[in-house]
Amino acid sequence: MSDQSRRPRRPAKPYRRPKKDPVRVLAFEALRAVDERDAYANLVLPPLLRAARERGDFDARDAALATELVYGTLRRQGTYDAIIAACVDRPLREVDPPVLDVLSLGAHQLLGTRIPTHAAVSASVELARVVLGDGRAKFVNAVLRKIAQDDLDGWLERVAPPYEDDPEEHLAVVHSHPRWVVSALWDSLGGGRAGIEDLLRADNERPEVTLVARPGRATTDELLGEEAAVPGRWSPHAVRLTEGGEPGAITAVAEGRAGVQDEGSQLVALALAGAPVEGRDRMWLDGCAGPGGKAALLGALAAERGAVLLASEKQPHRAGLVAKALAGNPGPYQVVAADGTRPAWRPGSFDRVLVDVPCTGLGALRRRPEARWRRRPEDLDGFAPLQRGLLRTALESVRVGGVVGYATCSPHLAETRAVVADLLKQFPDADLIDARPLLPGVPDLGEGPDVQLWPHVHGTDAMYLALLRRTG
Ligand SMILES: C[S@@+](CC[C@H](N)C(=O)[O-])C[C@H]1O[C@@H](n2cnc3c(N)ncnc32)[C@H](O)[C@@H]1O
């Protein structure tokens, strides 16, 4: 007879159904969609929140918490992975992705929010029971109890190498960015530790919602009447909503007279429109227009000057979005679905041309919490020929004396200065012009002639702009 069989049997604990917490379940579903379907959090979350509100499961506070849990968990995934790895006895790649999502959500509640420890652990274990089952909930409980033994600073000291030994890896773990991204951002930014740390920190903050009052269609005064609205920092057409809110519910936005647009994007359109050109100024081209934010601002600016905008976009469904963004534009415009590297127009047709080219988006990490983990250094090679092709066509499309704006929402040097330098070699009849005076009042624009904006310096996305004039 074994020892066990001689022990009196303990009465089994009565089975208790797990408590289903709609906020955590929804956050988990959003994380699974991001992982399994390569979905974008900013696209996946709104319909889930809407459905929860319609079911009566959610109020505004629940929606805010679910959003914070999803965005915070995704942004800080690199840091949390390093901490979770220190608390499990197998490589993270051997932990099932849904289990890892529950652990990351729990780690975020423990280390990145003010939710009390016991509530964070018990809510995560309940979530695990609902979505993973009781067996794996025990594992989740054990790991989260280990994580709860220290705070974030304590964990970072343990899991990140000292800055002096390996600065890039230290910053990658502490500020939750892939190492190659830290390295690329630092190359572009230059300077010492303080600047890059401020930038990485800014990438982890929720950006304010910024509106543009499209000239001739809405005024900033109209938008400043909204709750917690303040003027933009740099663009005369910008209004910031300091408490976020629902921009779609604002009348001017719903009517397309205003839109949601980062000030960096507004500055790109304004600088191109403001660049001096001699003689004719009637034909403007946006060669990569989808979904149409810059085209809508350019269209309104063109209308004020009696110019016509042609907005061209390769993907038909995105050309449809451009048409929607431009509907009601006060002046003439046309939207076409066309490949910007094989133009359907004659060379030299335009006085001003914008190419806001497809890129890695490393300048907009604040908005796309999962993007940093999805991007790979090889993506740069994929974009390189297209970026060069689009800039070449833009230079061919502008008349002598006209201006081309080359823009990216990435500060990666391979997508910015390297592209412009290559094209200037191939296309000797073009000169860079100083973009800085065309962004009046904006400080810290570097040595020029191109411009790189930064989240931690300007509060904008890290937009890049080079302005080129065709000389022959
Ligand atoms: C960075 S986005 C432009 C954003 C836009 N300027 C705005 O402010 O809303 C780049 C766009 O270029 C489009 N694109 C990609 N390849 C293209 C090509 N060969 N010709 C024209 N557009 C292209 C993409 O579909 C994408 O919509």
Descriptive key words:
472 residues, alpha/beta, N-utilizing Substance Protein B Homolog, Chain A, 8-stranded mixed β-sheet, 4-stranded antiparallel β-sheet, 21 helices, 12 strands, 13% strand, binds S-adenosylmethionine, RsmB/NOL1/NOP2-like_CS
Description:
- Helices cover 47% and strands 13% of the residues.
- It is of the alpha/beta class and 472 residues long.
- Helix 4 packs across helix 6 (97-112) and helix 15 packs parallel to helix 16.
- The relative contact order is 0.08.
- Bound molecules: S-adenosylmethionine.
- S-adenosylmethionine is lined by residues 265, 288-294, 313-315, 318, 339-341, 356, 358, 386.
Unreliable segments (pLDDT under 50, ≥5 consecutive)? none
The CATH topology annotation of the largest domain reads as Rossmann fold
Count of DSSP-assigned helices: 21
Structural class: alpha/beta
Mean pLDDT: 96
Whole-number count of domains: 4
Oligomer state equals single chain
Would you report the number of β strands? 12
Strand content: 5-15%
What is the helix content?
Answer: 40-55%
CA(first)-CA(last) distance: 99 Å
Looking at the structure, what is the overall shape? elongated
CATH class of the largest domain: Alpha Beta
Radius of gyration: 26 Å
Largest sheet: 8 strands, mixed
Q: What name goes with the CATH superfamily of the largest domain? A: Vaccinia Virus protein VP39
Ligands bound here?
A: S-adenosylmethionine
Q: Would you identify the CATH architecture of the largest domain? A: 3-Layer(aba) Sandwich
Family: Belongs to the class I-like SAM-binding methyltransferase superfamily. RsmB/NOP family.
Keywords: Methyltransferase, RNA-binding, S-adenosyl-L-methionine, Transferase
GO molecular function: methyltransferase activity
EC number: 2.1.1.-
